[in-house]
Amino acid sequence: MNATPATRIKAADTLGHYINGRTVSASSATLDVHNPATGRVARQVELATRETVEDAIAAAEAAFPAWRNTPPAKRAKILFRFKQLLEEHADEIAALITEEHGKVVDDALGEFQRGVEVVDYACGIPELLKGEFSKNAGPAIDSWSEFQPLGVVAGITPFNFPAMVPMWMFPMAIACGNTFVLKPSEKDPGAPLLLARLLSEAGLPDGVFNVVNGDKVAVDTLLEDKRVQAVSFVGSTPVAEYIYSTGTANGKRVQALGGAKNHAIVMPDADIDNAVSALMGAAYGSCGERCMAISVAVCVGDETADIVVDRLKDQLADLRVGTGTDTCNQMGPLVTREHCDKVRGYVDLGVKEGATLVVDGRDLTVDGHADGYFLGPCLFDHVTRDMRIYQDEIFGPVLCVVRAESQEQAMQLIDDHEYGNGTCIFTRDGEAARYFSDNIKVGMVGINVPLPVPVAYHSFGGWKRSLFGDLYAYGPDSVRFYTRRKTVTQRWPSGGVREKAQFAFPSNG
Ligand code: NAD
Q: Is 291 in the active site?
């Protein structure tokens, strides 16, 4: 067992890579990682060169034959131990997420927990890999399908869930017998490195899980290297599309999850108080930096819209914005200065486009944190489909209210939008809810549930330009994504019977 200690990522560290069970520093170029609450540099991260990524792929390739032949039950034992270590280190991982991403610590623990649930699911891998068997598929012929690992697979992940999204990928990939190279976001690389150390401490053989930090150079190396069999990506739609087209052109299996603009419909019969509370959490939680955040509330009827806007305005007056480490706060800063400026720019644009800015968070200041990347919650009313604040993914604490005359008109808006990640309807009418879930062109649907993020034993994915590829992340789809089906048909001649050559196509006819 490799006993690399899971030491704390320290404030002044320059983070390197994790290759073949060891922390590796390649003395390449570095990038500053900021604490978004203070605006100060928390640490640096190295940007991998092509050679460093190739070293990680070589380590993963070397580890594959033995790992592939390790019984699934033994792989599961290592994942059980990993899960225990994760739970022991939960506070440390959440603190790292809050320091580098900015989200409030309860939210960091929430994302961490949803990642751990995928590890739970992966612990059931002996059951999930059992395969399919048919006795007497023909006379004295048995047939079975088995699911073999692919080899070296890669994961490329976004900044907004630095622990959960990597855990959507690698627990199932390695449980299936693959070896893995992760390229996390360069904006918050601390948590993934800590996960790598804990995997080694749990007894994962060297080279089975590797982390390379970096930018496009690292990503392109993974996409072009023939030894990488499959790529899982989560991030923005333009990059997802690039990853899908480049990866598949290089012969790889690719699943690339992209951006979103999630609409919630509020019907006139909805329990409005509950709907407004749900909208508050779903629109402003994690500062709106969630791919499942609700960024558009479509209110059916002016009366519904007037009530929803009034109540949101009241509740927003009490929303506590500040550092993620203060447990009284409900919303932290945005991830970087550039992103904060971009979101603020969208608020300016919305005003120019003629939407009504009901709540303006642009003047917010947080005492003692003048250099933090804070923006207060913003609420627009009378948003229309021709506006860019409606069309684009803003990825910040900005909720747009659109007014519709009917459920059909509200659903048409959603169906016409380029993204189809998540959506939700608030209603007390079962028929309306059933019609909505049956017909809406979106991958994940909530009925009075604003963030319908599937649990670990279902699978996560959107429709339209929110997903490129056929298979969703984690859950049952991940077994299919990280394995290749092989079907074996066997007959053992018995009784010394000589069989004549058959020229008709074999059948049971
Ligand atoms: P991003 O696309 O900028 O970056 C994602 C990853 O791609 C990072 O590791 C980054 O280093 C790499 N990358 C960035 N530009 C690249 C390029 N030109 N070539 C190659 N690689 C590149 O995304 P982000 O800003 O980190 O994350 C936010 C986005 O992720 C939002 O659009 C959000 O909706 C999306 N997201 C989607 C899901 C989902 O499940 N659909 C989940 C989380 C986040």
A: yes
Query: Taking a C-beta distance cutoff of 8 angstroms, is the pair 218, 212 a contact?
Result: yes
Q: What is the pLDDT of residues 98-118, one digit of tens each?
A: 999 999 999 999 999 999 999
**3-state secondary structure labels for all residues of 191-242:** HHHHHHHHHHHCCCCCCCEEECCCCHHHHHHHHHCCCEEEEEEECCHHHHHH
Which of helix, strand or coil describes residue 450?
Answer: coil
Q: What CA–CA distance (Å, rounded) separates 481 from 130? A: 16
- For residue range 290-323, list pLDDT tens digits in order: 999 999 999 999 999 999 999 999 999 999 999 9
Per the CB < 8 A criterion, the answer to whether 194 and 93 are in contact is yes
- Model-level pTM? 0.96
Beta-bridge partner residues of 209: 180
- Give the Å distance between the CA of 240 and the centre of ligand 1: 7
Whose CA is closest to atom 31 on ligand 1? 236
- What is the 8-class DSSP label of residue 287? G
Choose the catalytic residue: 123, 176, 287, 291.
Answer: 291
Contact partners, residue 110, CB within 8 Å, separation at least 6: none
What's residue 6's pLDDT? 42
Atom number of ligand 1 nearest to Cα 335: 25
- Count of CB atoms situated within 10 Å of the CB of 388: 12
3 state DSSP class of 456: coil
* Domain boundaries of the chain, sorted by first residue: 2-258+466-487, 262-447
Burial-class residue 480 by CB neighbours within 10 Å (0-12, 13-18, 19+): middle
- What is the tens place of the pLDDT at every residue in 20-29? 999 999 877 9
- What are the tens digits of pLDDT across the range 256-289? 999 999 999 999 999 999 999 999 999 999 999 9
Assigned CATH for 262-447: 3.40.309.10
Q: What is the pairing mode between strands 467-468 and 253-257?
A: antiparallel
Give the distance (Å) from ligand 1 centre to CA of residue 117: 23
Are residues 264 and 296 in contact, defined by beta-carbon separation less than 8 angstroms? yes
Answer yes or no: is the C-beta of 186 below 6 A from any ligand 1 atom.
Answer: yes
Contact status, residue 244 vs residue 268, Cβ threshold 8 Å:
no
Q: How far apart are CA 78 and CA 80, in angstroms?
A: 5
Q: What architecture is domain 2-258+466-487?
A: 3-Layer(aba) Sandwich (3.40)
Which of 236, 287, 392 has most ligand 1 atoms within 8 Å of CB, for mutation?
236
3-state secondary structure of 175: helix
Its sign, for the CA torsion 102, 103, 104, 107, is: negative
